[in-house]
Design brief:
alpha+beta; two-stranded antiparallel sheet; 39% helix
Length: 299
């Protein structure tokens, strides 16, 4: 026979257990709502998704593991340009031979096919940077907005601004040693950091306009003062044509980086933004991002 305080506690515990069991049987204490989405499996080595309005994490996979980022680096390139004081988007930059030589020297890196001697506006260079992922456009912008008496000094200064901006945004696992993602061993970030970077960049109206544009045709000024109509620049982001509500942001790829994509979409007033790093190929990269967007909207 159980008596006293100890007996009372045991009887209460037994009653609570019976009640809890009954509630579980009826589903009253079911922890996961019936409509909850199942976290997807992705091929990418790293992934992260957040609600852009609140910053709430919606999905993580090795979200803080540092990896090579490829041309997703150019998000920071664009942001540094757009943060310049008294920025004039219509100011013109003369395309130098060094920019085209750089493309050739780097195994014909992705480029906007800029013509030496042409005068191109900063706005046009941003389109050339973000749509066809022009490393020549990136070089031109770094040369324009860096400080120093030589091109090498200006480029070094610009990359310094990229790292200063990263620090200011609290991106603790991010470092740049290039203006375009063709790194020298110390160009890295993480899915979480890149997503935060993109979220910050998307606050800029010009950036938002550029990265959601599928195709852009620039009219540049030739050396002789005429007008050149460039071949259209097409956005390398496949989601803009395949995912309802897609609004950006940037692809990246390379031998070390694999296939990367920073992505964003808006549906019913909710914006989901995220990153996949080191996916296996372009098709899988798109599939990974699509799965994560769907999951983000279902959360």
């Amino acid at each position: 026979m159980i008596t006293g305080i100890k007996g009372t506690r045991l009887r209460r515990a037994a009653a609570a257990a019976v009640t809890t069991g009954a509630m579980l049987a009826t589903g009253a204490l079911t922890a996961v709502p019936a409509q909850a989405a199942t976290a997807p499996s992705i091929a990418a080595k790293g992934g992260y998704v957040m609600n852009n309005a609140t910053g709430t994490s919606l999905y993580t996979k090795a979200a803080d593991t540092r990896r090579s980022t490829g041309s997703t680096t150019k998000i920071m390139t664009a942001l540094v340009v757009l943060k310049q004081p008294n920025l004039n988007l219509d100011s013109k930059v003369t395309i130098q031979k060094a920019y085209s030589d750089y493309i050739v020297d780097n195994n014909w890196a992705s480029n906007a096919k800029l013509i030496v001697g042409d005068k191109v506006t900063v706005r046009q260079l941003l389109y050339g940077l973000m749509l066809p992922s022009g490393c020549d456009a990136a070089y031109a912008l770094a040369d324009k907005f860096g400080s120093g008496s030589t091109r090498a000094a200006r480029v070094k200064s610009f990359i310094g601004k990229m790292n200063t901006t990263a620090k200011g945004l609290g991106l603790k696992n991010t470092h740049f040693d290039s203006f375009d993602g063709i790194g020298k061993g110390a160009n890295y970030s993480t899915p979480r950091d890149l997503t935060k970077l993109a979220g910050s960049a998307m606050k800029n109206a010009t950036f938002r306009t550029v990265v959601k544009t599928k195709k852009y045709t620039a009219k540049t000024t030739t050396k002789s003062g005429g007008t050149r109509t460039m071949a259209p620049w097409e956005n390398t982001n496949p989601l803009l044509s395949s995912y309802t509500g897609a609004i950006g942001v940037k692809t990246g790829s390379g031998p070390e980086a694999g296939y990367c994509l920073v992505f964003a979409a808006t549906r019913n007033g909710k914006t989901v933004i995220g990153t996949v790093l080191s996916s296996t190929n372009a098709t899988t990269r798109k599939s990974d991002a699509t799965k994560l967007l769907n999951y983000g909207f279902a959360k």
